[in-house]
Amino acid sequence: GGGGAGKNSPKLARSRKRLAEFFFGPALGLALSTFAFSALTSAGMKEGMMSVGVKNTFKRMVFGGAFEGLRDAFGNMGQADIGTLFRMQMNRLMFGISGGDQAKVLAAQVNISGLTKQQALNVQSQVASFAALNAVLPSKVFEDMASNTEMFAKYAKDGGLNLGMAAVKARQLGIDLSTVDKIADSVLNFQSSIEAELSASLLTGKQLNLNRARELALMGDIAGLQDEILKQVGSEAELQQMNVVARKKLADAFGITVSELSRLASGELEIQNSDMKQNTRAIQVLTGVMLGFAV
Fold this sequence. Notes:
Layout: H1 2-24, H2 26-47, H3 49-52, H4 54-63, H5 65-74, H6 82-95, H7 99-113, H8 117-133, H9 138-147, H10 150-155, H11 161-173, H12 177-188, H13 190-204, H14 211-219, H15 222-233, H16 236-241, H17 244-254, H18 258-266, H19 273-294
């Protein structure tokens, strides 16, 4: 009995080894290949392997929303190169920004600001880092920017960096870029803006002066415009002392609703110029680290 078991043990060991080699060799490879083929075929069947191509089908399978976002934003699949897709995937992993929102902003940056995709993505990294450093969700900032890409044509500077910073400020105030856009359009409509300014001054007793706001809007300094409007709006306590008509006139002077005016009056910008200067170095370092991973 015992001697037989001892003689069979080498055979048993060899059998186990062969079994392990099969399951962790050919069998595992076959399983992974089958899974990859199944996923590739499933992705290809969505629009047809022949129309999309194997290479682009593989990109969509691996990068998902980033690939589809670029295709939809640019209208073709030629812009979905591996380098761009990888950078966008890094932004999604680090900051939670969807591929679709990144792609919409990227298309606006490239088509309107004339940047290369890599330059545009560098700007996006700066905006995302700035938002994260100031306790604002980068995903919400990019969602706002993606919904207001028409502002790039009107106000974008430095590849849209100014709009990114303005979007961060807007989030902290509880408003969005569409509200800021209304304010900018309103103060730049000089005749009606001056009339509304004078009317609001008479009814509220506030000595409004929107000349600086107009100047900032003309320069495309949207973040600076928000600072200036906050000064003109005044405090929440001042707003509460006004009657309904006065509040409406004050809101009209800025081209916004009374509800939006109330949010501006109750909000306090946490990002001041000094904070922005102090955070500049931290933004550069974080952006550099991210670029290092992306290379």
